[in-house]
Amino acid sequence: MGKMKKQSTFFRISRQIDKCYANFANPLSLPIMEPLKKIVFIVNPISGTFSKDFVLASIKEQINRAKFTYEVAYTQHAKHGTEISAKAVANGADIVVAIGGDGTVNEIARSLIHTPVALGIIPCGSGNGLARHLQIPMDIKKAIENINRCNIECIDYGRINNNPFFCTCGVGFDAFVSLKFATAGKRGMLTYLENTLHECLNYKPETYEIVREDSTMKHKAFLIACANASQYGNNAYIAPQASLDDGLMDVTILEPFTILDIPALAFQLFNKNIDQNSRIKTFKSNKITIIRNKPGVIHFDGDPVMEGSVLNVEIVGHDLWVCVPPEKGRKTGNMLQMAADYFSGFKPFSGVLDELSAKNKIFMERRKDESRE
After folding, report:
1. Which domains does the chain have, with CATH numbers?
2. What is the pTM of this model?
């Protein structure tokens, strides 16, 4: 009897083992548990104009722990974001999230190109140009929810003399102002506008030679912007027709102008139709060379750097994975959200026009005094 019981137990265990093997042979009969994705949040504590404590508290509260594990790292010096994100890639991260502005995004994203690791963005900078182009919400909680959805698409990026850029790069006045802004001490759009207004009347345009595959042309220009995305940030659209997935950059050349042109240019910059201004020349290309008279400052994604007189600019197609809104809001758009984002960049604009108007009056009075002499 004892022997039969032992045999019965043996056969019961055997049948259970056979059933397990059968289940593995037919995986649909078992629930499949996907492994948790690993996220590394990289915080730039000095970007933008507010503390990141609220952001981190919101992540702790909102992140979907059924889908993700996560860790947080802080940048401590320039280019530290590049080191941290490279280490995250090596350690098997699935998503690396930039908590900062376009400079922080640039540092982190440059380690993610040519990899399967996706970039996430929680916009906390002064301009947030790439996030705005992608229609990533400026609201922190909504930006975290965008990461929870984990909708990932591939976009282009650019290089200027091997410096990667993801939003815009340029030479001329915008690079000059980026250098001033970098040393200003204060952050924020108002600081940027103060530098712009202070310098624009004294800046002297330069002559540039632009070499394309089929032509060479010379331009005396206030600035030349090469755009992968459509805007500098704060909804200032320097290249309204730019696309992140067409394999091309939109080149915008701003020719010399008078103070009387400034209000119209400023209005059109924020109104998404600066390309219709007579002082603007635009074209699309995947590769150009800009030749200037001497070395000087350039910018990529708002960060200034000194470069030589020959600048090679190109777009690399579909080489960066990014978490984007699944509803394709950046193309079709939720009208209320688009309006809110638009006016969040447009709010200080009336103040800009007031200041430009005041400067214009001073300029005209000066002209009258000179004519009397």
Report:
1. 163-317 (2.60.200.40)
2. 0.80
